[in-house]
Design a protein that fits this description.
The protein is of the alpha/beta class and about 550 residues long. About 40% of the residues lie in helices and about 15% in strands. A six-stranded parallel sheet has the order 3-2-4-5-7-6, sandwiched between helices. Strands 16-15-17-18-20-19 form a six-stranded parallel sheet, with helices on both faces.
């Protein structure tokens, strides 16, 4: 006989789980007991939002569900931010929530929440385990669902009396994954569609992507002479140095690549949903009149036809399709079209000077040139990230860990998770001052478990992205976007880490070297000129343009 917490932990071990992220609560004490001496590392975080984001990042890094445990009520609501990231980013993840005793249900007991209702629109599946003997069944189904079709989050509520009860239920072994493959007829359909195109574009997507997939994509693009443009924050899906890489379609994209998307007559979407960020809010192409042929290979048949009329639409693993296409002879080549798009990308990569003694474009270009090829870069949301998107060249798969959902505060928890997953690799978190302040309490978690990310804080004293939009719509009427900042370097040192402030860009390389040599959590604060608002325009320029366009 085992209590439910032990049964659950054994089920996680059977699935190969080696690490979970949590904030403890009395509602799942039996699970905490089961984790004791289990061999599964329990990373105890400082906030449920940080714990859920770490679990989501672990899902991105491994391709397997990241695991998070939080307590009922406030713990669950705090964790919902990470579930939303997993939903929009198609990341496999399982959130376990402690729940009130079954005998108190529907009395609005202390911290009671109906989790099916709360998470119904955020998760692939939400359930509450009412019978201790059924724990293995629910865990097996949760892993299968989190990984099947379009990957995503699953939420399981755990009544505390169910967990503490005993059972002799046997464990369940994991089911083998479905065999991924593509028929010869499907490969031919893709080949025929591309052969008929004059200006095709390959758009890879999804969340589970390995170096083998990146190599297959590079080989396919090279052998066929095809251009590849990646979705928002999927820039590590192909070595950016290769001549077939045309850039990223997303927030702050190269305008000339956006213009080229209007001209494309055939898109091969391999796991991408071709959503609003990729199409500039459906301005560059619109489902009402898509105006080009779309070959859509997607693992979930319900997604095909959701936005676009696919011809053909193939419900299959896009990675399997890519492997098949990489070994298929090309019917023709598109070298001139590809070279033109690459030339636009190279020009976009040429740094544009921004104001101030510390220039983000120079910092990012230095990092791109000097970091190891397998260095992992994380970020959250903010205009600072546009410099990373524009100027950093990603070289290997699973080196860009960032939220396509645009979630602030994500970058630092993700960096902690990445450092724990790959302790021998360089992990750099790019963060704005607003972004970092949302989750910087997880510096305590990093120090407790030996994570060593290097955080580069772009400090311009404001919520920069919101200020940009504010100046465009209500120029010179500043409201709610200025920030007070702590001494980030001193704060890092207070946590036992390494901290520095850079006020002259020439000092950044040496500061980064010292941060690496410190061998611990490190924070480098960049004091930026408040005028440096975007990669292309200053605050004054954005305000002046908006004032000029306003009716008099």
């Amino acid at each position: 006989m085992r209590h439910g917490g032990q049964v659950l932990v054994n089920a996680l071990k059977a699935q190969g789980v080696g690490r979970v992220f949590s904030v403890p609560g009395e509602s799942f004490l039996a699970v905490l007991d089961g984790l004791h001496d289990s061999g599964i590392q329990n990373i105890v975080c400082r906030h449920e939002g940080g714990a859920a984001m770490m679990a989501e990042a672990a899902g991105k890094l491994t391709g397997r569900p990241g695991i998070c445990f939080v307590t009922r009520g406030p713990g669950a609501t705090n964790a919902s931010a990470g579930v939303h990231v997993a939903k929009q980013d198609s990341t496999p993840m399982i959130l376990f929530i402690g729940q009130i005793a079954r005998s108190d249900r529907d009395r609005e007991a202390f911290q009671e929440v109906d989790y099916r209702q709360m998470f119904g629109g955020l998760a692939k599946w939400v359930a509450e385990i009412d019978q201790t003997e059924r724990i293995p069944e629910y865990i097996a189904r949760a892993f299968d669902l989190a990984m099947s079709g379009r990957p995503g989050p699953v939420v399981l509520a755990l009544p505390e009396d169910m967990l503490s009860a005993s059972t002799d239920a046997p464990d369940l072994t994991p089911a083998p994954r479905p065999v991924a493959g593509l028929s010869a007829a499907q490969v031919t359909a893709i080949t025929d569609a591309l052969a008929a195109a004059e200006r095709p574009l390959v758009v890879p997507g999804g969340t589970i992507w390995t170096q083998t997939d990146a190599d297959n994509l590079a080989r396919f693009a090279e052998h066929w002479g095809l251009p590849v443009a990646v979705p928002f924050r999927r820039q590590d899906y192909m070595d950016n140095r290769l001549p077939n890489y045309a850039g990223d379609l997303g927030v702050g994209m190269n305008g000339r690549l956006g213009a080229a998307l209007r001209e494309v007559d055939c898109i091969l979407a391999l796991g991408s949903r071709l959503g609003d960020t990729l199409t500039a809010g459906y301005e560059l192409m619109n489902p009402r009149a898509q105006g080009r042929r779309i070959v859509h290979v997607y693992p979930d048949p319900d997604e095909i036809g959701h936005l676009w009329r696919a011809d053909p639409g193939i419900a299959a693993c896009p990675r399997a399709a890519l492997a098949a296409l990489a070994n298929t002879p090309a019917p023709r080549r598109w070298d001139d079209w590809t070279a033109a798009l690459r030339a636009h990308y190279e020009d976009w990569q040429t740094p544009r000077d921004t104001p101030g003694a510390v220039k983000m474009e120079q910092v990012i270009c230095w990092l791109s040139a000097h970091l190891p090829e397998d260095a992992i870069i994380t970020n959250g949301a903010g205009n600072y990230a546009s410099f990373l998107h524009r100027y950093f060249r990603f070289k290997r798969a699973r080196t860009q860990i960032a939220p396509t959902s645009g979630s602030m505060g994500y970058g630092f928890p993700a960096a902690v998770a990445a450092s724990l997953q790959h302790p021998g690799r360089v992990v750099v978190c790019m963060a704005g001052d607003g972004c970092f302040q949302m989750t910087l309490n997880e510096m305590s978690t990093a120090r407790q478990y030996g994570a060593t990310p290097i955080v580069i804080v772009a400090n311009n004293g404001r919520y920069g992205t919101i200020r940009m939009h504010q100046e465009k719509h209500y120029p010179a009427r500043v409201s709610g976007t200025d920030l007070f900042n702590p001494d980030y370097a001193a704060l890092a040192r207070a946590y036992g880490g390494h901290g520095e402030v850079v006020t002259d860009g020439n000092d950044f390389p040496a500061a980064f070297g010292r941060a690496q040599q410190a061998g611990t959590l490190a924070v480098i604060e960049l004091q930026l000129d408040p005028e440096a608002l975007t990669t292309a325009a200053t605050l004054t320029q954005i305000r002046a343009a908006a004032q000029k366009d306003q009716p008099r």
